[in-house]
Amino acid sequence: MVNPKICYRPIRPSDFDSLEHIHVKLFPIRYESTFFQDVVNGRDIVSWGAVDSSQPHGQSDQLIGFVTVRIVLAKESEIVDMLGYDSSKSGQTLVYILTLGVVDSYRNHGIASSLIREVIKYASSIPTCRAVYLHVISYNNPAIYLYKKMSFKCIRRLQGFYLINGQQYDSYLFLYYVNGGRAPCSPLELLAAMLSYMRSGFKLVAAKLCKSEDRKMSRWSKCKESHSLVSVTHNKRNLAVEYTGYECV
Ligand SMILES: CC(C)(COP(=O)(O)OP(=O)(O)OC[C@H]1O[C@@H](n2cnc3c(N)ncnc32)[C@H](O)[C@@H]1OP(=O)(O)O)[C@@H](O)C(=O)NCCC(=O)NCCS
């Protein structure tokens, strides 16, 4: 590939097949068809695609990279303790990166960096938004390097967060503050943060206690439950079968 001319645009319904194809190639998990439907139709998900317009007609509008994000309420997120006191009280929001990828032959040309810059610009344009965040599996060095390069801060290591084909993997949680978002710093904020962190710890223990009950649930109800995504704190992502949690790996 010589001198690609990369353009960025929203993902649209005609991208459905290539979007699905790239996800299958890049990620060790299978995403439900509803996820791609939601992305291409912009249902609760905002996305950007990268295309190489220097390619011959017919390929010049084909996706070679993408990023998908969702807006979540700060007070319902697992990083509420990483935000100032106001964020847990009011209608403040966060942008959560669901998936990001660039096809092999187009890597190391700064395409993912540009896609992340689009996300940061978008998050900054939302007055209520205080940060962009994401999970990444602990062995994904190119992605970890990329987020650090883009000034994301690694704020947490979540043990056994992913369960892929029966094997547990840790994840890192990366965060980038926007619009004056910041970590708690006053004694009151630190206390509130500590309490909310402890509360999430209790939720984790409760989730573990419920785990055996979960096994008895039907597959359908499991799928529905995992749709709650970031509103559940520190829940493990079981990626062995169909996956509806949508986090980056
Ligand atoms: C991670 C990914 C999106 C990066 O895409 P990209 O377009 O190549 O990223 P960029 O070109 O903007 O930046 C890549 C940077 O990582 C560096 N890099 C690449 N491989 C690396 C590695 N194994 N270790 C450390 N750094 C690495 C490059 O040198 C480059 O840094 P530089 O700009 O300082 O030279 C791409 O590798 C990918 O799609 N991976 C598979 C899907 C995935 O893991 N997605 C992220 C899930 S959280």
From TrEMBL:
It catalyses: L-lysyl-[protein] + acetyl-CoA = N(6)-acetyl-L-lysyl-[protein] + CoA + H(+); N-terminal L-methionyl-[transmembrane protein] + acetyl-CoA = N-terminal N(alpha)-acetyl-L-methionyl-[transmembrane protein] + CoA + H(+). Belongs to the acetyltransferase family. NAA60 subfamily. Keywords: Acyltransferase, Chromatin regulator, Chromosome partition, Transferase. PROSITE patterns: GNAT. One of its GO terms (molecular function) is protein N-terminal-methionine acetyltransferase activity. This is N-alpha-acetyltransferase 60. GO terms for cellular component: Golgi membrane. Transmembrane segments: none annotated. Residues 6-179 form the N-acetyltransferase domain. The lineage of its organism: Eukaryota, Viridiplantae, Streptophyta, Embryophyta, Tracheophyta. Coiled coil: none annotated. Its EC number is 2.3.1.259, 2.3.1.48. One of its GO terms (biological process) is chromosome segregation. Pfam families: Acetyltransf_1.
